[in-house]
Specification:
Helix 6 crosses helix 11, helix 6 runs antiparallel to helix 13 and helix 11 packs across helix 13. The chain contains 16 helices and no strands. The two termini are 65 Å apart. It is mainly α.
C-alpha cells in the first residue's frame, strides 16, 4: 500500500468505550457477595476426640502438680499444714530470696551443671562414635549390637544400679579386682572405697548415667546416618576429600539437626538425674552428692519445708525452660525443612 492509498482510506477508526453493562465489574472491585458457610466434613472432629483423653491425662499428671508447686512456693507449708491442720501462710517471694541468698544452693547448682556437662559430652561423643562404627559393621554384627543396646536400654534402673554397686564394691567389686591385677598393687585397690571421695564417687555415677543413655543416642544417630545420601559421599571422595572432609562437609550437615535435638534432650535428662545417685548411695546420699533434684527433695522431706523444696523445683524448671524452648525451636525448624 502506497502513501496515497493510505491518505485515501482516511484516519483509522477511533475505538468507542464500552458501557458498564458491557465491560462487567472491575477486577479490583471488592466482592461483597456473602460467601457460603463452610460445611464441616464428616468425621472432622474425630482426631480431636481421639486425643482428648491424652490431653486430659497430661493435664492431670503435669499441669495440676505444676500449678500446686507454684502456689506452694509462695507459701510457708510445713508438716502440720500439709495434713490440713491450720491455714498455710502466704510469704510472697521470701522462699526465693532465702534460696537465692544461700551459698549452698549455688554450690549445688554448680555441681549439677558440671556433672550434667560431663555426662552429656561423654554420652553424645561415645554414642556418635558407636553409630559411625555401626555403618561399617557386617549385618549380623550390627544386629547383635543393636539387640545388646536395646537390652541395656530396657534394663530397670534399680537392676542397673545394683550391677554398678557390685562393680564398685570395695571388697568384692570387679573394678578393684581388675585394677589390682593390672597394676599389681593389691594393697591399694583391694578394699578401696570409691565413694569416700566425691570426685571418684561421681565417676562411678557418671558411668551408670552414660551407660544407660548411650543406647538411645546410638540408635537415633545411626538412623540419622542412614539418611545421608551415599552418592554425595562418593562424589566428595572422588573429588579428593579426606574422610574427615567428607564427614565435615557432607555427613555432619545432614545429621546436625538430629544431633542437636538429642543433645538438648540429654541436657534435660542429665540435669534432673535423681535415681542413679539415690540408689548408688543407699537411699541416703551425703550432702557432697546432692544435685538440684536431691537438694530439693532433702529440703522438702528431710527438713519438712515443702515450700522451700517447691521453690527450688520451680527455679530448676525455670533454668531448664530455656533449654526446652531451644529444643522446640529446633523441632519446628526440622519440620519446616522437611
Amino acid at each position: 500500500m502506497t502513501a496515497a492509498d493510505t491518505k485515501a482510506a482516511g484516519p483509522p477508526p477511533v475505538p468507542v468505550p464500552r458501557g458498564p453493562e458491557e465491560t462487567g465489574p472491575s477486577p479490583s472491585a471488592k466482592d461483597t457477595t456473602p460467601r457460603p458457610k463452610r460445611q464441616r466434613k464428616k468425621g472432622e472432629l474425630l482426631p480431636y476426640l481421639l486425643i482428648l483423653p491424652a490431653i486430659l491425662a497430661i493435664a492431670a499428671v503435669y499441669v495440676y502438680p505444676l500449678i500446686k508447686t507454684v502456689i506452694m512456693s509462695f507459701q510457708d507449708m510445713g508438716r502440720a499444714a500439709l495434713w490440713g491442720n491450720g491455714e498455710t501462710p502466704w510469704v510472697g517471694f521470701e522462699q526465693f530470696t532465702n534460696i537465692l541468698g544461700d551459698p549452698e544452693f549455688w554450690q549445688v547448682t554448680g555441681r549439677t551443671i558440671v556433672f550434667m556437662t560431663i555426662c552429656v559430652v561423654l554420652t553424645m561423643g561415645i554414642g556418635l562414635l558407636i553409630a559411625l562404627m555401626m555403618l561399617r559393621l557386617s549385618t549380623w554384627v550390627r544386629l547383635t549390637l543393636t539387640v545388646a543396646l536395646i537390652a541395656a536400654w530396657s534394663m530397670p534402673l534399680m537392676v542397673a544400679a545394683s550391677v554398678f554397686r557390685w562393680l564398685a564394691d570395695s571388697d568384692y567389686g570387679l573394678i578393684n579386682t581388675l585394677l589390682a591385677d593390672i597394676t599389681g598393687n593389691e594393697d591399694k585397690w583391694l578394699g578401696h572405697n570409691w565413694f569416700l571421695d566425691p570426685w571418684q564417687g561421681f565417676g562411678i555415677i557418671t558411668l551408670l548415667v552414660v551407660w544407660g543413655a548411650i543406647p538411645f543416642v546410638v540408635i537415633t544417630m545411626y538412623a540419622a546416618l542412614t539418611q545421608v545420601p551415599k552418592e554425595l559421599e562418593e562424589a566428595a571422595s572422588l573429588d579428593g576429600a579426606s574422610a574427615y572432609g567428607v564427614y565435615r562437609y557432607v555427613t555432619w550437615p545432614v545429621i546436625k539437626p538430629v544431633f542437636t535435638m538429642v543433645a538438648t534432650l540429654s541436657v534435660i535428662w542429665d540435669f534432673n538425674v535423681f535415681g542413679q545417685i539415690w540408689l548408688l548411695r543407699g537411699n541416703k546420699p551425703e550432702p557432697e552428692y546432692e544435685t538440684l533434684g536431691l537438694y530439693s527433695f532433702s529440703k522438702a522431706f528431710e527438713s519438712t519445708s515443702f515450700s522451700q523444696g517447691s521453690a527450688i523445683a520451680l527455679i530448676t524448671v525455670l533454668m531448664l525452660s530455656g533449654v526446652a524452648v531451644y529444643y522446640l525451636r529446633q523441632l519446628i525448624k526440622t519440620g519446616e525443612v522437611e
